Automatic annotation (TrEMBL):
It comes from the Eukaryota. One of its GO terms (biological process) is action potential. This is Potassium channel domain-containing protein. The lineage of its organism: Eukaryota, Metazoa, Cnidaria, Hydrozoa, Hydroidolina. GO terms for cellular component: voltage-gated potassium channel complex.
Length: 479
C-alpha cells in the first residue's frame, strides 16, 4: 500500500516537472494527475496543441447496453460514452474536449456495413468486439476501449463429479505457491539474521561455521514461525532475542495467512458442489461477440447464434438452448432478465481465455494515430478508469433506464466461484511485493553469509598472527 502511494507520488513529481505542452500532442497525460494541469493552459492553448480537441466527431452506434444505449430522454449513455468523456475529454483534452454527436441507432450489422461505405461512414463506430491487441477490424482502424474476456454462463447447475472436485482442490492448493514461497524465503532470511547475531555468544546452538550454523538458524525460524517452538535452539544474545521477538510476530502472521488462504480456498472449492457443464450442451451466444463463442467451443459445447439478447433469452425460456454465454459486463446487465425467464438458472464465471475487448472503428487516419499512440502510452489510464466503481455505476444506470434490459440490479445473483478467485489473486506472483520479498530475503541471507565469512577469515588471520608471535616467543625462549 505504502509502496504504491510512493510510486504514485514519484509519478506525480515526475509529471509536474514536464509541461502540459509536451503531453498534449501525444495525448499522454496520466489519468490520476490530469487535474494538476487543468488551470495551466487556456482552452485556446489546449486546442492549439491538440487540434482534435476542438473537433466534433460523428459517432454511429448500435444499441448494446451496458456498452452503449439511449435512455428514455434520448441521451446516449453507457460504458463507452463514459470512457470517451473520461479519457478523451477530461484526460486527453483537459476538460476542453472533443464533442461527440451520436447518429441514429442502428443494428450491429448495419453499423459495420455503413462504416464500410465512405459516403455515409461516421468518424467513429461503437461498440465493436475484437481481439485486444489488433489494429484492424475488417479493413478499418480499430482500437480497444475495454477488456471483456471474462465469460459468464447462465444455466441450470448439476452436481459435480467427486473426482473433478479433487482435481480442482489440488489445483487451488498448487495455486497458493507464491505465498508459500514468500513465507519460506522470509524464514530463511530471518534464520540467517538470528544465526549471525547469536553465533558469537551461543556457539553451541548456532555454530559459527557456515552451512551448519545457518541451517540451525533457519530451523529455529521455521519452528518459531509455525508456533511449534521445540526450544532445542534458543537465541541468547540480547540483539538476537530482540530480533527473535520481531520475527515471531511477522512469521506467525505470515504463516497464519498461508494457512488461512489454503483453508478458504478449500472451503470455497468444496462448497461449489454444483456446476454447469458446457460439454455437449447447446449454448446461446450473440453472433457478433467473440469471447463467449470461443469459450463454448473450447469447452466442447454447441454454439447457437442469436442477433439480440432478447431472442436468446426467449430461446432459453422455450428450452431450445441449455444455457447462455455472455461476457461478464453484459451478463451483469441481463442477469435479472435471464433469471426472470428461467428462475432455476444460476450464473457462473466460466473462463477468461482469449484476449478480447470492445472498442471502436474509425476511418480517419488522424483519430487512428492519436488513439494508437494514446493506447500504448495510456494502458494505466485505461485500467484506472475501469478499476473504480465507474463501470458498475454505468451498468446500474443502464438498468434503471429500462431501455432494453429491465428488472432491477440484484446483488444476490453473485457468481458462484467468485470468492475463490479473489482469494487467490491476493497473493499472485505478479504482485510487486512477491519479487521484493524474495529478492530482499535472498540479499539478507547473502549478506549474513558474507559477514560470517569475513569475520571468520579475520579471526583466523589474527590467530595465525598470534600463533606466529607465540612461535617466535617460544623460539626465543628455546634459544
Ligand atoms: C475552436 O473552435 C471554435 C468554434 O468551433 C473556434 O472559434 C476556435 O477558433 C477554435 N480554436 C482553435 C484553436 O482552433
Ligand atoms: C469535458 O469535461 C468537462 C469537465 O468534466 C465538462 O465540463 C465539459 O462539458 C466536457 N466537454 C464535452 C465536450 O464533453
Ligand atoms: C453508400 O451510401 C450511399 C448513400 O446512402 C448509397 O447511395 C450507396 O448505394 C452506398 N453504397 C454502397 C456500396 O452500399
Ligand atoms: C423502470 O422500471 C421500474 C419498474 O418496472 C420503475 O419503477 C422505474 O420507474 C422505471 N424507471 C424509469 C426511469 O422509467
Amino acid at each position: 500500500m505504502s509502496i504504491l502511494t510512493f510510486i504514485t507520488i514519484l509519478g506525480w513529481i515526475q509529471d509536474s516537472h514536464q509541461q502540459a505542452e509536451y503531453y498534449l500532442p501525444k495525448c499522454s497525460i496520466r489519468y490520476e494527475t490530469r487535474h494538476y494541469y487543468y488551470n495551466q493552459l487556456s482552452a485556446d492553448e489546449i486546442h492549439q496543441h491538440q487540434p482534435l480537441c476542438n473537433k466534433t466527431f460523428k459517432v454511429a452506434y448500435a444499441d448494446f447496453p451496458p456498452y452503449v444505449f439511449q435512455d428514455e430522454k434520448g441521451n446516449v449513455k453507457g460504458l463507452i460514452p463514459i470512457f470517451f468523456q473520461k479519457i478523451f475529454n477530461e484526460t486527453c483534452c483537459l476538460g476542453q474536449g472533443m464533442k461527440f454527436e451520436y447518429l441514429p441507432e442502428k443494428t450491429h450489422k448495419q453499423l459495420v456495413m455503413d462504416q464500410h461505405n465512405y459516403s455515409i461512414a461516421a468518424d467513429l463506430a461503437i461498440p465493436i468486439p475484437n481481439f485486444r491487441d489488433v489494429d484492424y477490424y475488417t479493413g478499418m482502424y480499430y482500437s480497444t476501449i475495454l477488456y471483456n474476456d471474462h465469460v459468464d454462463v447462465a444455466g441450470v447447475l448439476e452436481p459435480r463429479e467427486p473426482a473433478d472436485k479433487m482435481t480442482s482442490l489440488f489445483k487451488s492448493l498448487i495455486q497458493t505457491w507464491p505465498l508459500l514461497l514468500m513465507t519460506v524465503a522470509m524464514a530463511i532470511g530471518s534464520g540467517s539474521i538470528v544465526w549471525i547475531l547469536d553465533n558469537k555468544t551461543n556457539n553451541e546452538q548456532f555454530p559459527e561455521h557456515f552451512p551448519d550454523g545457518m541451517a540451525e538458524g533457519i530451523w529455529w525460524a521455521f519452528v518459531s514461525m509455525t508456533t511449534v517452538g521445540y526450544g532445542d535452539r534458543t537465541p541468547s544474545f540480547w540483539a538476537a532475542r530482540l530480533f527473535a521477538v520481531v520475527w515471531i510476530f511477522i512469521g506467525v502472521t505470515f504463516f497464519g495467512m498461508y494457512l488461512g488462504t489454503i483453508t478458504s480456498v478449500m472451503t470455497t472449492n468444496l462448497q461449489i458442489d454444483k456446476e454447469f457443464q458446457i460439454q455437449n450442451k447447446k449454448i446461446g451466444v450473440l453472433s457478433w461477440t467473440n469471447a463467449p463463442k470461443q469459450v463454448v467451443i473450447v469447452m466442447e459445447g454447441f454454439v447457437e447464434e442469436y442477433n439480440t439478447p432478447t431472442e436468446m433469452i426467449e430461446a432459453l425460456k422455450q428450452d431450445q438452448i441449455d444455457g447462455i454465454a455472455l461476457d461478464s459486463f453484459m451478463m451483469d446487465y441481463y442477469m435479472s432478465q435471464i433469471k426472470e425467464a428461467k428462475p432455476d438458472v444460476e450464473i457462473q464465471t466460466r473462463g477468461k481465455t482469449f484476449k478480447t475487448g470492445i472498442g471502436f472503428v474509425t476511418n480517419s487516419e488522424k483519430i487512428r494515430n492519436l488513439i494508437t499512440g494514446f493506447y500504448g502510452l495510456n494502458m494505466d489510464n485505461i485500467i484506472q478508469v475501469w478499476s473504480g466503481d465507474i463501470w458498475k455505476k454505468a451498468i446500474e444506470e443502464s438498468i434503471m433506464s429500462n431501455k432494453t434490459g429491465g428488472g432491477i440490479w440484484n446483488e444476490k445473483f453473485t457468481r458462484v466461484n467468485k470468492n475463490n478467485k479473489e482469494t487467490l489473486e491476493l497473493f499472485t506472483y505478479k504482485h510487486p511485493s512477491f519479487l521484493i520479498c524474495l529478492v530482499s530475503m535472498f540479499v539478507t541471507s547473502c549478506v549474513c553469509v558474507l559477514i560470517n565469512q569475513t569475520v571468520t577469515r579475520c579471526k583466523r588471520k589474527r590467530q595465525d598472527v598470534s600463533m606466529e608471535s607465540q612461535g617466535v616467543i617460544l623460539k626465543s625462549i628455546a634459544k
